[in-house]
Automatic annotation (TrEMBL):
<dbReference type="InterPro" id="IPR027051">
    <property type="entry name" value="XdhC_Rossmann_dom"/>
</dbReference>
<dbReference type="Pfam" id="PF13478">
    <property type="entry name" value="XdhC_C"/>
</dbReference>
<dbReference type="InterPro" id="IPR052698">
    <property type="entry name" value="MoCofactor_Util/Proc"/>
</dbReference>
<protein>
    <submittedName>
        <fullName>XdhC family protein</fullName>
    </submittedName>
</protein>
<feature type="domain" description="XdhC Rossmann">
    <location>
        <begin position="78"/>
        <end position="217"/>
    </location>
</feature>
């Protein structure tokens, strides 16, 4: 791989954006296809498949075989709320292959004793997300029931195009949440992306069951996600 291509690939990696290196097996020639460029590429279908699956492999073209080397940022789940659901979700997320982080400014809840081995930050989400911004390879699960903690990361997740955004609470609770988000200038089309009540509809009632439901929704959203260019084509909140 030449230095120019490698530098471009590293730039995409640093920005947590997907890219595919296309290598012509007959000639060894290589080129980089960024996720935002896939739609206009002659190999759009196999490249999109590689990005969705995260798997590299050989593809047939009219000019011969090419090897598609997929480079995806690690998918992650950010849980807003150091609660019982997060305690159950943390080990499940790791088993499923997701990076997992918990953010909660309430130091009585966000303790290493309650979350051994987990990435845990006992600070306000707006402060944490300045240093570690959300992106298209992040799922955000808001589960504190406290608008002062929940609303900012929800707005940030919608603006960042996170592949999944879910919020805990009844439909009545969500209706009040919608009113607040509309008041904050978020369009209804963006608010409709929030899964609320959070998680797959499996009749979950215990924290462990709700964690299973959340992870099911996150996995489904990740595997069926829109490509980056499609997401950015949607109208963003003002």
């Amino acid at each position: 791989m030449d230095r120019t291509l490698l530098a471009a690939l590293n730039e995409e990696r640093a920005a947590r954006r997907a890219a595919v290196v296309v290598t012509e097996l007959a000639t060894g020639r290589q080129r980089l296809v960024r996720e935002s460029e896939v739609g206009g590429d002659p190999l759009a279908d196999p490249i999109e498949k590689a990005i969705r699956s995260g798997k590299s492999g050989i593809a047939e073209t009219g000019a011969g075989e090419v090897f598609l080397n997929a480079h995806l940022p690690p998918a992650r789940i950010v849980a807003i709320g150091a609660v019982h659901i997060s305690q159950a979700l943390a080990p499940m997320a790791k088993i499923a292959g997701f990076d997992f982080e918990i953010i909660d400014p309430r130091t009585a809840f966000a303790t290493p004793e309650r979350f051994p081995g987990a990435v845990l930050t006992a600070e306000w989400p707006e402060d944490v997300l300045k240093a570690r911004p959300l992106d298209a390879y992040t799922a955000v699960c808001v589960i504190t029931h406290d608008p002062k903690i929940d609303d900012h990361p929800l707005i940030s997740a919608l603006k960042a195009g996170c592949f999944y955004v879910g919020a805990l609470g009844s439909r009545k609770t969500h209706a009040r949440r919608v009113e607040r988000l509309i008041g904050a200038g978020i369009p209804q089309s963006s608010i409709d992306r929030i899964e609320a009540p959070i998680g797959a509809d499996i009749g979950a009632s215990t924290p462990g069951e709700i964690a299973v439901a959340i992870l099911a929704s996150v996995i489904e959203a990740f595997r069926k996600r829109k490509m980056f260019a499609e997401r950015r084509g949607e109208k963003e909140p003002a």
